[in-house]
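re: ur question from earlier - yeah i can do the single chain one, its not a big deal. heres the input i used so u can compare w yours
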Amino acid sequence: MNTRPAIDESTGPVALTVAFNQDSSCFAVGLDSGFCVFNSDPYFNAGVGTAEMLGRANYVALVGGGRNPKFPTNKVGTLSPGPIRTSDQDADGGLQLIVWDDAKQLAVLTLEFRSQVFQARLSRSQILVALLNSVTLYAFSSPPKKVSSFETADNPSGLCCLGSKIVAFPGRTPGQVQIVEIGTGNVSIIPAHGSPLKAMTLSPNGEILATASETGTLIRLFSTTNCARVSELRRGVDHAAIFSLAISPSNTLLA
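and the output i got, formated as tokens:
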């Protein structure tokens, strides 16, 4: 018998109608709160392990995944339905640049690495890529220019955060966080937890970093300006896997 009360009894939007367009390439869903339009066909009939959008722009960073990856898992492809300036120059040995052609659905950029890519983050000026034991920051240009690279502890979750002024990722010692100022390259170390990191997120304004370890009992919040701990939240006493953390657009709520 389940005696626990529901955490949230609210319901999401109710679908009132669903209809395809003339060639069935899209379908529209009428909701009690508005409407949504979806593509019927995916871009690829193969696995994508990571898809990172750039705001409401037309760029998406993709990493292959699943049983049938679309891309080798050591590549990051950046897709855009609009072409960008071409270049035939290579950088960092394994970098290959391709222009995205919307009619042919080709990748506009491809970054190649010698090991698996676990995560990629985008901003309008930077690309951040997390490998198992390192993160690399590139200028979002044509071709992308390597800005810096940092060693990390084992990071199979691909933990990394990209803000407008800073980047954050695991340190070289398990449980630590490195914060790097993009403009100056200054590095700060936060001894966040005594066990390896499992989740982290950066607030939209870049002022607060939230972290959780593999133990899963504590969530800690740090100021990115002085690396001071500003709050500690206890989830419970039993070990648990925390898969993700998120801070609201208003910078006031943590999930």
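Residues 82-104 have pLDDT under 50 and may be disordered. not sure if urs matches, ping me
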